[in-house]
Amino acid sequence: MYQAAFQRALQKVCRNVVCLSLLLMANGVSAVDIEFKNPESFKKLGLPFSQAVRVGDLLFLSGQLGNAPGGLGLVAGGVEAETRQTMENIKAVLESNDLGFDRVVKCTLFLADIKEWPAVNDVYKTYFGENPPARSALAASGLALGARVEIECIAAY
Predict the structure, then answer these.
(1) Domain span at residue 72?
(2) What is the CATH number of the domain that holds 39?
């Protein structure tokens, strides 16, 4: 069961990478068009990835968790509180790049338990207006820091 689920998830990731590569090539994006967005507050956390990466007119946000700003501890209060903090963390990254939720075109939600999808969705949808972004959601066998939810986004300038 786990092997089949892993294979499906891997196939989805590979499709996304291929689509992204084709999109970038079609838009004539080269290495000079890539900008890594890592404010000092993020660098201090010592994490092995960038907070966001701008490629042409797209901003790719790394997956965000429900950790309190400036640290790695998850907020208390269950999946709803974690989701709200996750969305606030996304909002902060967007705003630091002069964007808002209205410019988000795609999100991927990772859940520790797919049964929590309705609760996550109830919080998530309050951050988007009439035209929410495209979205995928899937359950994972474990998320970083023991999180219940992780959300990554792509936004357009």
Answers:
(1) 33-156
(2) 3.30.1330.40
Beta strands in the chain (DSSP E): 34-37, 52-55, 58-64, 104-111, 134-139, 149-156
pTM above 0.90, yes or no: no
Residue 1 lies in a domain: no
Residue 134 counted as domain residue: yes
**pLDDT tens by residue, 107-137:** 999 999 999 999 999 999 999 989 999 999 9
Domain count, the chain: 1
The full DSSP string for 118-157 is HHHHHHHGGG--SSPPEEEEEE-S--GGG-SEEEEEEEE-
